[in-house]
Write a structure and sequence with these properties.
alpha+beta; OB fold (Dihydrolipoamide Acetyltransferase, E2P); BirA Bifunctional Protein, domain 2; 2 domains; 8-stranded mixed sheet; 5-stranded mixed barrel; elongated
């Protein structure tokens, strides 16, 4: 069918092709035959459509091919679009031509749809309606992140993935043999961003991030994508407001472009619309502990990090994401400075999403105190000489600056309402999974 004008299923579902003869190509999503009629659901990247194939409407060999074609067979068909309230999406294609591009073998994903089996078959399960919807929303989210920062005057800046230093803690480093040396996969672009921010002032990045966390929870990946930003001449309040604006911007883009996918995922669109219009509250870590202890009758000691349980209980009291600031300095990374107004806390923040999705954004002001950073690195067993280049940034014209990282998969999981973060990325990498 060289030179054929192909119709996308979304054009049909939008009512633009009713009563018109069209050519369609895609894959058999479901199929059943009854005597001289075959009812087939065809899918392409834009949706699914019922196709009705009658023996009298096409050559015998084409009808026989339609009867024996299994799911996931690829096809090229032609026919006339008709409205039909009995069809799943209100339209059907009355087929007058049917060509098999590839006869599929029996599809291995049938009755066994356990999570581990589907992960083993990820290269095939990625075709499912659910994962397809998630990946479309993910694409919108990534595009929105780029648009948000570029619209606000940020430059995209790329940092190396192979790095000689730890940023977020030595216990979660992936070690790499680099010729005759030992280096690590990136935990964050941040240290390099702090070099670039004195040149470009407003920068952002989207890149892979690696954390060797020995965790098997539904909220952790060993390889994930982080959207990070850094800005000069700004403080903690400034950066938390930027983060809130970014999340609202992302939500509005998804609501504009992905309502069909949100419906496939049974997401509450009205709730997301309300969140996108709302102000997000900011509270301190101390206030969060107070809520947990007084309203949830918990016994959370001041100074411990908030676990999944505490975050989920806290978010029972909020309908929108919440920014939590001023975590205890003792549990924070070396580059997060003390708050002069409350020295036992750091000038840092996490944004926690409602619904049990935990932290989706984390950031801080950056310390300008070289001696304090050296001391804290020593306490962690780090060699301060490896950070001399980083300390140089404070010695030559340093200014107040801030930044944060947004976990792309965490945001995708929250907006899509999916149970496990493994479904927020095409091919997840975890403590126990590195294939396919």
């Amino acid at each position: 069918m060289s030179g054929t004008q192909w119709t996308r299923i979304e054009e049909i579902l939008d009512g633009k092709k009713t009563d018109k003869a069209i050519h369609l190509r895609g894959w058999i999503h479901r199929t059943r035959s009854s005597g001289n009629i075959v009812f087939t659901i065809i899918r392409d990247a834009t949706g699914t459509l019922q196709a009705t194939i009658k023996k009298d409407n096409l050559p015998e060999n084409e009808f026989e091919d339609s009867k024996k074609a299994l799911i996931e067979s690829s096809v090229e068909i032609k026919g006339t679009v008709k409205r039909d309230d009995r069809a799943p999406d209100g339209f059907e294609l009355q087929v007058t031509g049917f060509k098999i591009v590839n006869f599929a073998e029996p599809f291995p994903i049938v009755k066994d749809q356990s999570p581990e089996f589907l992960l083993d078959q990820r290269h095939l399960w990625i075709r499912s309606q659910k994962l397809s919807a998630v990946l479309k929303i993910r694409s919108t989210i990534v595009g929105a992140i780029h648009e948000f920062f570029r619209n606000n005057g940020y430059y995209e800046f790329d940092a190396p993935i192979l790095q000689p230093n730890q940023c977020e803690g030595g216990s979660t480093l992936f070690e790499v043999k680099y010729y005759d040396n030992k280096i690590y996969l990136s935990q964050s672009w941040q240290l390099y961003a702090e070099a670039a921010v004195f040149s470009l002032e407003k920068i952002y990045n989207m890149g892979p991030t690696f954390r060797a966390e020995r965790s098997k929870t539904s909220r952790h990946l060993s390889e994930f994508w982080m959207a990070e930003m850094e800005i000069a001449w700004a403080d903690l309040h400034d950066v938390t407001e930027i983060a809130k604006d970014e999340i609202r911007f992302i939500l509005n883009k998804v609501l504009k472009h992905n309502k069909r996918e949100l419906n496939i995922l049974d997401q509450d669109i009205k709730k997301l619309q309300l969140i996108a219009k709302s102000e997000f509250p900011t509270i301190t870590y101390t206030k969060a502990i107070d809520i947990l202890n007084k309203k949830e009758n918990m016994n959370v000691k001041w100074g411990k990090d908030l676990r999944t349980l505490e975050e989920n209980k806290l978010m029972d009291h909020f309908e929108t994401p919440v920014v939590v600031t001023n975590y205890p300095i003792e549990i924070m990374a070396f580059y997060k400075p003390r708050d002069p107004k409350d020295p036992k806390t750091a000038l840092c923040f996490d944004m926690i999403a409602p619904g049990g999705y935990g932290e989706i954004v984390g950031g801080s002001q950056r310390s300008l105190d070289v001696e304090d950073m050296k001391q804290r690195l020593k306490e962690q067993g780090e060699k301060t000489k490896n950070y001399e280049w980083y300390f140089d940034l404070r010695r030559y014209g340093s200014v107040p600056h801030v930044g944060y990282g947004l976990g792309v998969e965490r945001v995708v999981a929250w907006i899509c309402g999916i149970d496990n973060i493994k479904d927020a990325i095409p091919f997840p990498r975890t403590l126990i999974r590195f294939r396919p």
